[in-house]
Structures are given as C-alpha cells and as structure tokens.
C-alpha cells in the first residue's frame, strides 16, 4: 500500500508561474503542505494500487479509420472556467474557486533551464485558503480542472516531464499523481499526459509514465484506490474524455507505430480497451478541446 499526501502545482501555456503568497482567508485556513517530487509525505490515508489487467480488443483491420465520432456521448466540463494572465501573474476561476500564481526569477541550477519559474501558488474557496509549493519548482502551469467532488487537478511542467497534483478543497489533502507509479529509485513517474474527471467527480483518468511512454491509470478519490489499467504502452496519450454514464471513457494515443492519432475506448465494466481506429485531424482537435488545458 502506498501513502500519499501532496501539494499543488501548476503550469501555464508558454508561461512559468512563481512566487504566490497572500493574506489568510477570513474563512478557516486549511493546512499548508510542502511536497518534494523525489519523495512523498506519508499520511494516515493509504492509496491502494490495483492492477486492472484490461484486455486489449483490436480490429482485424489495423488501419481502420473512425468514420464519425458521436460527441453527444461525452461529458464536457471544460467551459466553466476563466483564465486571466496579467504580466507575471495568472488567475484561474471556476465557480467559487480561485487559483493565483506568479512567476519569479530562477536561481542556482534553475537558471540552466529557464529564466523564470513558478514559485508558489494559492487556491482560495469558501472552504478556506491553501498555499502550494513544489520542490523542484515547476516551469509552467499547464491547466487546472475542478471536479464535482470539490477537488482541483493541477498540471504543471518541469524541465523534463510534468506533474499532476490533486487538491481536496474540503480537507486540504494534496496528492501527487506521479507517485502512484514509483521507480526502483523511489521516484515517481516522469510525466502525466492528458487527464480528465469523471462526470460525478469521484474518479480521474490519466496517462502516466516516463518520457517516451504512457499507460492508462484511474484514481478513485472516494476510495483512495489507484488502478493500473493495462501494461500496454501507448507512448503518448493526448486526450481523455469520459462518457456521460461515467462507466467508460475514450482516449487518443499517438504511438511510435502509428503516425496518426488512434481512438480507444476503455470500459470499466468489461475491463477492456477497444481500439476504434485512426482519427481525422478534425476529430483529433475536437477531442483535445474536451480535455483540460489553458
């Protein structure tokens, strides 16, 4: 059993964000945590890892193309947030939740990677305020996404790779998703590709792996259970979109053996991954728009 407690970080399109602090909210202030990406702080709440071992269903015609995509089947929660960039500060808002971060000048070894980095971040809601710090400091905030279960997913870029942090707005718990897949040296996975919340907000699906690899993972935030869905390496997972029923989701892969984007469907009931076929550029872009990003 693995234990995880984490703090949040973000990355913004072609921007690095840093140094964000602020006065405490008039509401009760939630615990402030600090997490090192090399290790993870143990907590009383364990994260159970499950090997999903989903079967891979492949059409006999491996060059099959998807003629049409039924977009009415997808759950879309990407149109409720607002992002404002003012100089070296970024502000993200969704309902009563506000995320603020600033860029700061890089120091020491950081200067070899970038001139500016994201120093600290702040999330404020009616439940209180949380400060977020990551070590090492990230280069950019890529995206944030609010779930129906009052959790924020924060995606940030590093010099190589990226990190995804889940922040529970109710109790202040923060979890670094990369730590669900630990290497022999105790470090977490190097990157998280696309991710997305389920319609009820109780699960989050994502692509996880080291540079050049990507595996499908699902984390149940309610039961604190992580499922390694399959050992198949999809190289790069560019989009993930849940179906409205919350029992399955589609994802787009760009593997070394396929120059085109390929659409797959994962069914939690059947425990299977079905290869639907190659996508047109237009459908690839549309599915990308349903995946969290700035």
UniProtKB/TrEMBL annotation:
Signal sequence interval, chain numbering: 1-26
InterPro entries hit by this protein: 6-blade_b-propeller_TolB-like, WD40
Highest taxon of the lineage: Bacteria
Keyword annotations from UniProtKB, A to Z: Signal
Keyword Cell wall biogenesis/degradation recorded: no
Transmembrane segments: none
Protein name as catalogued: Tol biopolymer transport system component
Organism: Paenibacillus brasilensis
């Amino acid at each position: 059993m693995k234990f995880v407690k984490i703090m949040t970080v973000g990355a913004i399109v072609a921007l690095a964000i840093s140094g964000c602090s602020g006065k405490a909210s008039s509401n009760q202030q939630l615990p402030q945590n600090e997490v090192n990406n090399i290790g993870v702080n143990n907590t009383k709440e364990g994260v159970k890892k499950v090997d999903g071992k989903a079967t891979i269903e492949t059409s006999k015609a491996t060059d099959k193309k998807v003629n049409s995509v039924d977009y009415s089947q997808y759950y879309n929660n990407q149109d409720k947030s607002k992002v404002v960039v003012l100089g070296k500060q970024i502000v993200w808002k969704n309902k009563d939740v506000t995320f603020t971060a600033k860029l700061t000048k890089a120091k020491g070894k950081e200067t070899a990677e970038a001139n500016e980095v994201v120093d600290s971040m702040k999330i404020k809601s009616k439940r209180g305020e949380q400060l977020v710090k990551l070590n090492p400091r990230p280069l950019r905030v890529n995206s944030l996404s609010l779930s129906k279960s009052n959790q924020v997913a924060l995606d940030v870029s590093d010099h190589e790779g990226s990190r995804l942090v889940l922040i529970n707005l109710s109790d202040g718990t923060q979890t670094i998703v990369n730590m669900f897949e630990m290497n022999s040296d105790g470090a977490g996975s190097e990157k998280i590709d696309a991710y997305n919340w389920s319609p009820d907000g109780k699960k989050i699906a994502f692509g996880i792996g080291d540079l050049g690899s990507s595996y499908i993972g699902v984390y149940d935030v309610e039961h604190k259970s992580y499922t390694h869905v399959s050992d198949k390496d999809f190289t790069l997972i560019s989009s993930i979109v849940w179906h409205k029923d919350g029992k399955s989701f589609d994802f787009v892969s760009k593997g070394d053996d396929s120059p085109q984007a390929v659409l797959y469907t994962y069914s939690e009931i059947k425990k299977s991954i079905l290869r639907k076929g190659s996508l047109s550029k237009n459908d690839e872009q549309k599915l990308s728009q349903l995946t969290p990003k700035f």
